[in-house]
C-alpha cells in the first residue's frame, strides 16, 4: 500500500519529465547586419567572397575550390550556422579559406548573420523532437505569405492567421538516423522573406529516461 501511494505521488513528476508535444517561437525580425558588414569589409572577406557574397571576389577565380554563392538558396540551406562558425574560426583545409581565430564568438555571430542576410531578411534555427509540432508566429510579416517545405512528403505545413505550424508526418526518425535537418521557405509573392531551418531529433534519450524512471533497471 505504501508503495502504491508513493507511486501515485511520483506520477505528476514523471509526466513532467516528458518533452512537450507543442513548441512555440516568434519569427525574428530583420537579421541585424551592421556589425557583421563592417567586419566582413574590414577583414578582406570580399576579396574572395565578393562585395555581395556571390563568390566573385578578385581572388576567387584562380582558386581550386571557389567560394560559393551566399545568395543561392540551394547552397545556403546545406550550411548550418555551426558549420559557418567553424569555417570562420578554423578555416577550411584544402581551400583558400583562412582561419580567423582572433574573432570573439559575438563577432563570429555577427558575421554569420551578415552572410545569411545575403539571401534572406529573416532566418531562424529551431530544434524539435520528431513527435513535436512547432508553431512559429510570423506576425512581423505584414503582407500575405505562403510557406513551402523543402520536403513536403515528410513534413506538414499549416498556416492559420500569422501562425505557421510545422510537423513531421512520421513521428519518429529511422533508427539509423540521429537527426535530420529540413527547411521551410516563407514566400511573399516570389520573394523569399524568411527561411526556417529545423533540426529534428528522435529524442530517444528523453523518452528512454522517462521509461527508465517508471520501470527501474533490474540489472
Ligand atoms: C583568400 C580567400 C578567402 C577569404 C579572404 C575568405 N574566404 Fe571564406 N571561403 C573561401 C573559400 C575558398 C571557401 C570554401 C568554398 C565555400 O564553401 O564557399 C570559403 C568558405 C567560407 C565559409 C563556409 C562555407 C562552407 O562551405 O562551410 C564561410 C562561412 C566563409 N568562408 C566566411 C568567410 C568570412 C566571414 C571571411 C572574412 C572574415 C572569409 N570567409 C574570408 C575563401 C576565402
Summarize the structure.
The chain is α/β, with parallel strands linked by helices.
Molecular structure report:
The chain is an alpha/beta fold and 219 residues long. It has 2 domains: 12-28 and 121-219, Immunoglobulin-like (Sandwich); 32-119, Cytochrome Bc1 Complex, Chain D, domain 2, CATH 1.10.760.10. The protein has 7 helices and 8 strands. Strands 1-3-6-5 form a 4-stranded mixed β-sheet, with no helix packed on it. Strands 2-8-7-4 form a 4-stranded mixed β-sheet, with no helix packed on it. The protein starts with a helix and ends in a 5-residue tail after the last helix. The model has no long low-confidence stretch (mean pLDDT 89). The structure holds heme C (HEC). Heme C (HEC) binds next to helix 3, helix 5 and helix 6.
CATH architecture of the largest domain: Sandwich
Summarize model confidence as the mean pLDDT.
89
Kindly state the number of beta strands.
Answer: 8
Task: Identify every distinct bound molecule in the structure, by name, code or SMILES.
Answer: heme C
Amino acid at each position: 500500500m505504501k508503495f502504491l501511494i508513493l507511486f501515485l505521488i511520483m506520477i505528476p513528476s514523471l509526466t513532467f519529465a516528458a518533452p512537450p508535444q507543442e513548441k512555440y517561437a516568434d519569427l525574428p525580425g530583420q537579421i541585424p547586419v551592421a556589425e557583421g558588414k563592417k567586419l566582413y569589409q574590414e577583414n578582406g572577406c570580399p576579396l574572395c567572397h565578393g562585395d555581395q557574397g556571390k563568390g566573385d571576389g578578385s581572388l576567387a577565380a584562380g582558386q581550386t575550390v571557389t567560394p560559393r554563392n551566399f545568395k543561392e538558396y540551394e547552397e545556403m540551406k546545406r550550411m548550418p550556422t555551426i558549420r559557418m562558425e567553424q569555417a570562420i574560426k578554423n578555416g577550411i583545409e584544402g581551400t583558400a579559406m583562412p582561419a580567423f581565430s582572433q574573432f570573439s564568438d559575438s563577432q563570429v555571430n555577427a558575421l554569420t548573420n551578415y552572410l545569411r542576410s545575403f539571401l534572406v531578411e529573416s532566418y531562424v534555427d529551431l530544434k524539435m523532437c520528431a513527435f513535436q509540432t512547432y508553431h512559429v508566429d510570423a506576425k512581423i510579416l505584414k503582407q500575405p505569405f505562403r510557406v513551402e517545405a523543402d520536403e513536403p512528403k515528410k513534413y506538414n505545413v499549416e498556416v492559420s492567421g500569422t501562425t505557421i505550424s510545422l510537423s513531421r508526418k512520421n513521428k519518429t526518425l529511422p533508427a539509423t538516423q540521429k537527426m535530420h535537418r529540413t527547411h521551410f521557405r516563407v514566400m511573399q509573392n516570389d520573394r523569399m522573406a524568411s527561411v526556417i531551418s529545423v533540426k529534428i531529433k528522435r529524442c530517444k534519450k528523453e523518452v528512454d529516461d522517462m521509461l527508465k524512471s517508471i520501470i527501474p533497471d533490474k540489472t
